[in-house]
Amino acid sequence: TFTLTWSPTTGPLGLRLTDTTYSTAIRVAVSGVSPSSVAWSQPPFKSYMAKYKPLYDPTNPEDKDVGLTIVEVNGRNTERTNAEGVRTMLSEEVAKGAGEITLTVRGSGVFNGVLGGGDMREGQVLSTSVSPPSGVRPGATVSVTVLAAGTGRSKARDGDLLEISYNAFYLPRGETDAGEGGGRVMFDSSNARGAEVPTVQFVLNRQPFGQFPAAFNLACEGIRTGEVRRIVVPGVLGMEEEGRRRAKVPKDVEGYVYEIKGVLVNAMT
Q: What is the pLDDT of residue 261?
């Protein structure tokens, strides 16, 4: 998380904003930055982009891989509004005569970058805090644990065809132990789908919404053949309503646990 400062008299801020949806949550993402803008010239932004998004091309409108979301505008929380709401907040601050406006932004590039590196060690745990939808408990955390290191040479990237096996559990309200000895309850498994081969295939980050749990995309970023990961997702971000009812999962759960093994990446070991 870092801040950008903008004075309306110094020129355009230069951020393209868009709504991004995860389950029932809406976040305002930065989908582009003008290279001649105030934002692009600031050291915190330049440092973030150089370290986590070095391939980003600001002159290409199709390149939207910035990995930033807007958190606050002059101390006003933006995680319960949409892109139009953030633009309104900025306009209000300008109308009030604010000489300098501070934007707090959060980068997903750090979390995804470590996962995508494909070099996590067995037993390593990576976690990040997330803001749930309005009206639910704050302080939710997503965590990924490597249960077994991979042996494959290829690391799963955006658009790769993955073959995986998985087991899915829910944590009843009050249950926090996601391990085998805890109170988790299995509700789905690739072994229980009746197929001759107990695996499923999907294209990383390219499947239609709702076809697979959104957590699969996050959990499989950078996964190698043979690698086993456990991802724990807060209940409010786990499943859409239709999928929950179909899987016969209680409405009010503590969270979801997915244990995923990479079988093939682009049909290769």
A: 95
